[in-house]
Structure formats: C-alpha cells, structure tokens
Design a protein that fits this description.
The complex is a heterodimer of chains A (about 110) and B (about 120).
Chain A (H helix, E strand, L loop, with lengths): L3 E4 L2 E4 L5 E7 L7 E6 L6 E5 L3 E2 L7 E6 L2 E6 L9 E6 L6 E2 L3 E5 L1
Parallel strand pairs in A: 2-11
Antiparallel strand pairs in A: 1-3, 3-8, 4-5, 4-9, 5-6, 7-8, 9-10, 9-11
Chain B lengths: L2 E5 L2 E3 L5 E8 L8 E6 L5 E7 L6 E3 L7 E6 L4 E6 L8 E9 L2 E8 L3 E5 L2
Parallel strand pairs in B: 2-11
Antiparallel strand pairs in B: 1-3, 3-8, 4-5, 4-9, 5-6, 7-8, 9-10, 9-11
The chains are: A mainly beta (about 110), B mainly beta (about 120).
C-alpha cells in the first residue's frame, strides 16, 4: 500500500499569511494526487487534482504542485474561510489512501 | 445539482450487521463509479470501498475485506454498503463519494455522512 505523509499536522497562521502544506508518497504516484478541504462537521470538498488543476469553486489563491513522491498545497493569502483541515489523497492505485491531514488554525 | 444522501446508520453491537444506503440524484448515476469513505471520530479519512459503474470491478480496504460488501442498483440510483461482523473500530462517519468523471481515483462529490457506532 502507498503511504501518504502530510506535514505539518497543524499550522497556526493569520489572515493574509502564505501557507504551504507538504504531502509525501511512499512510492512514486506520478501526478495522481488530490487535495480536499474539510471544515468541522462537514463532508470533505474536492479542492484540486493532478497538482495544478483547481476545482471551479476554489479560489485562485489555492495552488498545487509536485509529481512523483512530493507534493505541495499552497494558500497564497489565507482568508477566514480557509481555516479547515486539508487532506491529500493518492489516486494512483488501490487501496486509495489519504494523508493524516493538516489543520490550519487561526493564530 | 448533484446530491448524495446516506441513510441506515445507527448504534449496533459488536458482531452485528448494518446496511448503509446512498441515494443519488442530479446526475446520471449509472455512468459513475462510486465509493465509501469513512472517518472515525476525531480522525482522518479512510477509503473503504469502490464499485465501478457497471458493478464490477469492486475493491475494498484490507480492514473491511470479507466483512463489508458494496453494491449498487442503477435502476434505483442507489449505492449500498452491507457491513457484517462489525467491530468497535468500525465506528465512524461513513460518506458516500462519487468518483470524478474524468478519473476514477478522485472523489468529486460527497454525501453529508452517516454515523455508525459499534458499541455494547
């Protein structure tokens, strides 16, 4: 199975800050990676896939990059609605696996 | 508008069974692969099972293999998860999630989730 490791597990940041989350795969997954945003008590929302492909609902301050085993999600200027937990997920092979999540909290 | 609505959750004793349902609307259900994903209280996301649009192939996480069975009824626009031999560690919110039309491995729409509690 492919293990997905996210770092940091949590980050405290202020509105306007730039935040970067890293996701590492235990083996190469090409660009088969997705990111999800989850707010407390809500279902996850599909944020972006295959590194740079942002979903239509997501603001352009979100961006993704990477391929192979290392990926990043960047929020260029944190907004109040961005405080949430973010998960990466590999879509290269079954079993599909998620990272442990990164909680973005208000400083 | 795509909607996925789970039902059938609740409290069950260890060793018991439960069947979850997911009612889909707002898209051509028979054309999409579907999944179950769960989240234990305060924990991260865990993919549980996948079913293709036609019903085969099917895949399971090792943690539920043999005990859980995924199925679908395209005529009823419904997805199911039969859960047998339930364990306390199966306690979680269970989400029905649609695979993206562009690629089977991404989940582009999720239901609101249904809580399953396994406890005596």
């Amino acid at each position: 199975d492919i293990q997905m490791t996210q770092s940091p597990s949590s980050v405290s940041a202020s509105v306007g800050d730039r935040v970067t989350i890293t996701c590492r795969a235990s083996q190469g997954i090409s660009s088969w990676l997705a990111w999800y945003q989850q707010k407390p008590g809500k279902a996850p929302k599909f944020l972006l896939f295959a590194a740079p492909n942002l979903q239509t609902w997501a603001p352009s301050r979100f961006s993704g990059s990477g391929s192979g085993t290392e990926f990043t999600l960047t929020i260029s200027s944190l907004q109040p609605g961005d405080f949430a937990t973010y998960y990466c997920q590999q879509a290269n092979s079954f079993p599909l696996t998620f990272g442990g999540g990164t909680k973005v909290e208000i400083k | 508008e795509v909607q996925l609505v789970e039902s059938g959750g609740g409290l069950v004793q260890p060793g018991g069974s439960l069947k979850l349902s997911c009612a889909a609307s707002g898209f051509m259900f028979s054309s999409y692969e579907m999944n179950w994903v769960r989240q234990a209280p305060g924990k991260g996301l865990e993919w549980v099972s996948y079913i293709s649009s036609s019903g085969s192939p099917i895949y399971y996480a090792d943690s539920v293999k043999v005990r859980f069975t995924i199925s679908r009824d395209n005529a009823k626009n419904s997805l199911y998860l039969q859960m047998n031999s339930l364990r306390p560690e199966d306690t979680a919110v269970y989400y029905c999630a649609r695979s993206s039309g562009s690629y089977w491995g991404y989940f582009d729409y999720w239901g609101q989730g249904i809580l399953v509690t396994v406890s005596s």
